[in-house]
From TrEMBL:
Alphabetical list of Pfam families matching this protein: Asparaginase_II
Organism: freshwater metagenome
Protein name: Unannotated protein
Length: 307
């Protein structure tokens, strides 16, 4: 592990976030820390999951395909899109097997009011709706689509292995209830590059959809969405427990994990990583600014330790 970020209070390093990072220039991997041990990449592999589903016949408009890759905020736009995916195969939200939830963002929560938690609000509802739709298209059982030995999940794992060129030795239940397969950071960086370069027609479609509709991938005022809006040709996706990927159409990519699982350091670390691979990140600094407060006033900030 290496130091990825420092939490600074009054010029004093109060906390350190450790982790590992893989940087891929399209042909060569550079390691910072341990990039060979497997991790659970969590939602950072949603573009790969969506690529597998497109390969299997899922044919959605880009707006809805972007939601398949999303950890969305649960806005009305997101909820309506999840329902559209299900309606395309004559199903409704009762088919979803993700947990119920309330919206992620403050504005979305206010708009949602006192409605009960619902499955279509869950940040992974687009992925689950697409898994169900893909199962219907292929004549597979929709009641067991989350089972690791379901034909869909077997194909998703194949997509992981093909895109990453590495192995996957562990499977677990992700927070949304779907399977998550392990992958090294080296493999994750290569796989993300494979999506961004459009190494297959399905991966090209996913990249184009995420780029065309970044607001469907995250939500308004979300770092993932704003970063894709501000940097032409950039694909960004976060995963729970401190995982992040970013990739460009020319093959450059980064993948890292904050070892303690914290998400607060991700923006500054990603900006430092993108700068290292030659991306102009001048438009992103304001997005990543995270003040450390004392007595209600700024007394420090989180800064990247890798540059």
């Amino acid at each position: 592990m290496i130091e990825l970020a420092h939490y600074i209070r009054n010029s004093f390093v109060e906390s350190i976030h450790y982790g590992s990072m893989a940087i891929f220039d399209g042909s060569k991997i550079t390691a910072f820390g341990d990039i060979d041990s497997e991790i659970f990449p969590r939602s950072a592999t949603k573009p790969l999951q969506a690529s597998a589903m497109v390969r299997l016949g899922l044919d959605l408009p880009d707006r809805l395909l972007a939601l398949s890759c999303a950890s969305h905020s649960g806005s009305e736009v997101h909820r309506r899109a999840a329902k559209e995916i299900l309606n395309s195969v004559r199903l409704d939200v009762d088919s979803l097997q993700c947990p119920t939830d309330r919206p992620y963002g403050d504005a979305e929560r206010r708009a949602y009011g006192d409605q009960q938690p619902a499955r279509d609000v869950h940040n992974c509802s687009g992925k689950h709706a697409s898994m169900i739709a893909t199962s219907v298209i292929n004549g597979w059982d929709i009641n067991t689509y989350r089972d690791p030995v379901h034909p869909l999940q077997i194909e998703i794992k194949k997509e992981y292995l093909d895109a990453s060129g590495t192995t996957s030795t562990h499977v677990a239940v992700d927070g949304c209830g779907a399977p998550i397969f392990s992958m090294s950071l080296k493999g994750l960086a290569k796989a993300s590059s494979a999506v961004a370069t459009g190494s297959t027609p399905a991966r090209a479609r996913v990249f184009e959809a995420m780029r065309a509709f970044p607001e469907m991938v995250g939500g308004e005022k979300r770092f993932t969405t704003e970063a894709m809006r501000l940097i032409p040709g950039l694909m960004v996706k976060e995963g729970a427990e401190g995982v992040e990927i970013a990739a460009l159409a020319d093959g450059r990519s980064v993948a890292f994990k904050v070892s303690d699982g914290s998400m607060r350091a991700i923006p500054v670390v990603l900006i430092a990583a993108l700068s290292r691979i030659g991306v102009d990140v001048s438009t992103l600094h304001e997005l990543a600014h995270t003040p450390v407060l004392g007595g209600g006033l700024k007394v420090g900030e989180i800064i990247a330790a890798i540059g």
